[in-house]
Design goal:
By secondary structure, the protein is an all-alpha fold. The protein folds into two domains: about 70 residues, Orthogonal Bundle (434 Repressor (Amino-terminal Domain)), CATH 1.10.260; about 40 residues. Helix content is about 65%, strand content about 0%. Helix 2 crosses helix 3 and helix 2 crosses helix 4. The longest helix has 21 residues.
Length: about 130
């Protein structure tokens, strides 16, 4: 049977839009000094929903975006625009470590990535045993 060439599908545009919205929400939240819980209270939403939005996992309705804008005391337009350089969200130490690790792995060879995966798996399993 002949092999059929399959096209690789690019990531849907909506995923990129959700991630961009999430970065903007996190930047605005942190700029105001709110925790996810505080922002959720101000927007009358659940804090886990806020986390899902910030990670780009949720696709909010326009009504929800308006509630968030009102809670953050901004117009709706800033939520839908692109992040400016000065608005880059402050990263936690954990987020900095995660980004750095991903950068290293992206530059590494297949053997290096496989070794890193085995190492991380061993560390996680050891951590679970200690709990």
């Amino acid at each position: 049977m002949p092999q059929v060439a399959t096209k690789r599908r690019n990531k849907p545009m909506s995923t990129d839009l959700r991630k961009e919205l999430g970065r903007r929400l996190r930047a605005l939240r942190k700029k105001r000094g709110y925790s996810q819980e505080e922002m959720a209270d101000k927007c009358n939403l659940h804090w886990t929903y806020i986390g899902g939005l910030e990670r780009g996992e949720r696709n909010p309705t326009l009504t929800t975006l308006k509630r968030i804008a009102d809670g953050l005391k901004v117009d709706l337009a800033p939520l839908l625009g692109r992040l400016e350089k000065e608005e880059t969200p402050t990263l936690t130490e954990r987020e900095k470590h995660q980004r750095l690790t991903v950068k290293w792995l992206q530059k590494g060879s297949d053997a290096t990535v496989a070794l890193a995966a085995r190492l991380v798996r061993a560390i996680v399993q050891d951590d679970k045993k200690r709990r």
